[in-house]
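Lab notebook, bench 4. Still working through the backlog of constructs that have no structural model yet. Next entry is a single chain of 172 residues. Request: give me the structure tokens for it.
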Amino acid sequence: MLAAVPTEPRLDNLYDDRSMRCPFCHADNDRVVDTRATEEGYVIRRKRVCGACHRKFMTLERLEETSIRVVKRDQTREPLDREKIRRGIERACSKRPVTGPAIEMLVQEIESEIYSSYLLEVSTEQIGEIVMRQLANIDDVAYIRFASVYRDFNDVDDFIDVIDPLRDRSES
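Model written out:
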């Protein structure tokens, strides 16, 4: 005998989370014990308990946004990768008084600006300018480090061209 499969969700289960496989025993029988929004609502962290082995684990749900393609200097295209942005910022902020949470917020702001300003494609030059503008507000040395790599400085005059506006800003 065939059982009827409901085509619409029941209203009392509308907001229940679907089970995930337990990372320990691989059972597909868990329940959510706590849900919290983090990173200004863009990420949801759920604490779960496995119904089979009773171990606790956490899952993260990140908003999947429309994929923006990055146009590189050689005209190749690849998906926007927030980790590449983070690595560049971390290198620029190395041995500087910039905390991990501050870097994460900076990456989040940069990513939000890219998604709100560009629909399908963004060039590496545009991303670099956004990162430099944001870094200039956080740490002058990190800004100069990033600019020296991004703009491919060739001599001292290139450094002076970047440092002069920082001097003017600090004098006013």
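Notes after review: The beta strands are 30-38, 43-50, 56-62, 69-71, 77-79, 121-123. Residues 93 and 101 are 12 Å apart (CA to CA). Flag for follow-up if needed.
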